[in-house]
Amino acid sequence: MAHFRQFRDPATETFSYVLGCGHSGQTVIIDPVVGQVLLYLGVLKELDLCLTWVLETHLHADHISAADTLREWTGARVAVARNSGIGAADRLLDDGDTLAIGELEIEVLATPGHTPGCLTYRWQDRLFTGDSLLIGSCGRIDEPGSSGIMLFDSVTRRLLSLPAETLVYPGHGQAGRWVSCIGEERDNNPFFHGISRDSFVPLRSAIRERYSPTTESILRANSCCGRPIPAETL
Questions:
Q1: 45 SS3 class
Q2: Does the residue 202 lie in any domain?
C-alpha cells in the first residue's frame, strides 16, 4: 500500500507531491513550497507518515523551496541533482540512481535542458517531471544554464519513449489540469508532436515570459535548499 497526495500552491501554480510507504511510514515530498509547510505537516500527521526525504526536480526560480524548513522541522534529508547548482543537500543524485522509501522504489532520470540539473522521478507508472515536461507545454529555456536542444532530447528520448499509459505529474498545471500521460503528450503537445529538433528552439523561444522582480532572491535561497541568503553576504 502507498499513500499519494498532490498539492497545488495557488500563488505560484506549483505542484508538490507526497509519496509514502503504507507499511513503514517512510515518505518523500517532491518540490515542496515554503508557504505550504503547515499543510504538508498536517497531512503527514493525519496519515501517520514520517518524512525521510525531500526531493527537488531542479533549482526553482518561481518559488522558495521548503526543503531546508522541512529538514529542520522533521529531520528529513534533502536530495538534488549533482549538477543542479543547489548546495547544502544531503545527497547528490545521478541518472539511474534509486531511492528506497520503505517498500517503494523511486528511479532517478536525468532530464536536463530547462536547467542543467533537472531530474524526473519515476515511481511505478508515474513520472514527476518538474518543469521538463508540462501538460501541453514544457519548461522555459532562458534560465541560467538552459539548453533548448538538451530539453528537446530529454523529453523526446527519455520521457516520450515510455509507455503511453505512463502518468505525467508535472511541476505546474495547465488550464486547471493536474495530470496527463505520455500518450497524450506524445500525440498532442505542440512543442514535441511533429516538431523537429531544429525547430523546437525558435518555437519555444518565441514565447516571452517575464521574470518576477523576486527571481534573483528566490534563486539565491534555493541554491541553499530554500534557506534565505542576504545579498550583502554574497
A1: helix
A2: yes
Half-sphere exposure of 22 (CA within 13 A, CB side): 5
Render pLDDT for 139-190 as a digit per residue (tens, 0 to 9): 999 988 999 999 999 999 999 999 999 999 999 987 789 999 999 999 999 9
Give me the domain span that covers residue 64. 2-209
Would residue 18 count as lying in a domain?
yes
d(CA 123, CA 104) in angstroms, rounded, equals 8
CA dihedral 59, 17, 47, 106 (to 10 degrees): -90
> Does residue 225 belong to any structural domain of this protein?
no
pTM across the whole model: 0.96
Burial letters 4-34, b for 16+ CB under 10 A, else e = ebebebeebebbbbbbbbeeebbbbbbbbbb
Spatial separation of the C-alpha atoms in residues 128 and 126, rounded to whole Å: 7
Question: Which pLDDT score, from 0 to 100, does residue 230 have?
Answer: 54
Q: How many domains does the chain have?
A: 1
- The continuous run of DSSP H or E covering 67 comes out as helix 67-74
CA distance 226 to 29: 14
What CATH number is attached to the domain comprising 169? 3.60.15.10
217 in any annotated domain: no
